Amino acid sequence: MASKKKSKKKPAKKSPKKKAAKKTAKKKSAKKTAKKSAKPAAKKPSRDLGPDVTAQRMFNLAVSPETVSGPGVAASLPQHVLKRGKKAFIVTDQGVRGAGIVAPIVDVLEKASVQTHVFDQVSPNPTDVNVAAGVAALNRFGVEGTVVVFIGGGSVMDCGKYIALAAPNGVDNLNLAFAPNLDANDRIDFSTLAPKAQASKPGLPTIAIPTTSGTASETNGGGLITDTLTNPKVHR
Questions:
Q1: In 3D, which of 58, 59, 54, 60 has the Cα closest to residue 188?
Q2: pLDDT, tens digit, for every residue of 127-176?
Q3: How far apart are alpha carbons 146 and 141 in whole angstroms?
Q4: What residue segments make up the domains of the chain, in order of their start?
Q5: 201: pLDDT strictly greater than 90
Q6: Assigned CATH for 53-64+80-234
Q7: Residue 77's closest CA among 100, 116, 101, 108?
């Protein structure tokens, strides 16, 4: 008869081979973790950035912006217009105008004896067609003594800025915009980054009333216009 001591099962001891394998696995895991946590060496910046830039064209209207902010600040618009001119050519789109945002501003201007005209033919992602229509409307209204007021988002402000530059220079196209050639992958050939014509006169004074947040178009003189003849977007 077997004794009770012999009938008890003792826990199996791990073989030396398994212990060694486990230690090796832990070392490998630690090495992998160290490699992952190690910061990669900083790469030297490449100077050849041209091929990676999306194809676009540019225009730029030099401005030194003054920002006025606060509840009901649009009511002070007449004094800002009259500091810079006598009339207000308002650039907007049909959505903003239809929302009832433009009418109160026009009313404030007219009560201050500021002659106004509203141009609302700006499409999302404005085009050279919008520019031509805006320049024609501004020329009919009269360039002399006019301040261009943008009421809208980035598209309205971009289009308005180019109109303000083009009209006093007798241009109704995108010839004042940077128009580089593009390679087969629609990337800019920087050697051709130059406007077809130079502006001989400064652009008209501009005032922006942004109705959206995030575009920051009101803070600078840059813009983005689509050339419907060649399809790429142009900048100035």
A1: 54
A2: 999 999 999 999 999 999 999 999 999 999 999 999 999 999 998 888 87
A3: 9
A4: 53-64+80-234
A5: no
A6: 3.40.50.1970
A7: 108
**What predicted TM-score, i.e. pTM, was given to this entire model?**
0.66
Q: What is the DSSP string of 135-151?
A: HHHHHHH-STTEEEEEE
CA distance 190 to 129: 26
The secondary structure of 184-225 as a DSSP string is TTSBB-GGG--BSS--SSPPPPEEEEESSSS--GGGSSEE-E
Q: Are 236 and 56 in contact (CB under 8 A)?
A: no
- Alpha carbon 124 to its chain's center: 13
Pairing of strands 146-152, 206-210: parallel
Specify whether the backbone of 231 is left (phi greater than 0), alpha (psi in -120 to 50) or beta.
left
User: What's the CA gap between 203 and 168, in Å, rounded?
Assistant: 7
- Quick: pLDDT tens for 100-122: 999 999 999 999 999 999 999 99
